[in-house]
Specification:
alpha+beta, two-stranded antiparallel ribbon, 14 strands, about 15% helix, globular, disordered N terminus
Length: about 170
């Protein structure tokens, strides 16, 4: 999946000149339960970690197979250390997103959060709030592959997909 397909898949709706997420809301309790839920790869597909300018969307499921999730990886074309890792539930609800080596994020209250930063679902706001990526968790964000492995752990992906490290990972 390339970046524009990912944008469509995240259910954006255009209103005038502004692009907003579709109105899909979860309570904070529902979102917290989805984030805490153990996730696993849907099948044994072997994925290749994306090269610069590419992306992948990996289907995941809960252990009881009642919930479906997606794990998105997108890489910038020019800035090799810029990447986004994202865990979605129910096709379009972003539960967690890690942005690496990109621009700062402005929270709804006006606070600016530098990169790397972590978006975690917040009731009423979706993924609009970010916090600085915890340095104790993400110790070397320039190593995109190991950072991705850490992100999968933080998303509680206990049986991760098979992903081969590419030449530019």
């Amino acid at each position: 999946m390339i970046w524009w397909q990912w944008r469509i898949a995240t259910a954006t709706a255009v209103q005038g000149d502004e692009c907003k997420m579709a109105d899909i809301n979860l309570t904070q309790d529902e979102a917290d339960k989805l984030m805490a839920m153990e996730k696993r790869a849907v099948d044994e597909t072997e994925w290749l970690f994306p090269s610069p300018g590419a992306g992948i969307a990996i289907p995941l499921t809960s252990l009881d197979k009642r919930e479906s999730f997606m794990l998105d990886v997108t890489r910038a074309r020019i800035k090799l250390t810029k990447a986004t890792y994202q865990n979605r539930a129910r096709a379009a609800i972003i539960l967690m997103r890690l942005d690496l080596d990109g621009p700062p994020h402005r929270n709804p209250d006006g606070e600016e959060v530098p990169c790397p930063h972590l978006h975690i679902y917040r009731e009423g706001f979706g993924d609009k709030w970010a916090i600085p990526a915890p340095l104790a968790t993400y110790t070397n964000t320039l190593d995109l592959f190991s950072t991705f492995e850490t992100f999968m752990q933080q998303c509680n992906i206990t049986d991760p997909p098979r992903i081969e490290k590419g030449l530019f990972s």
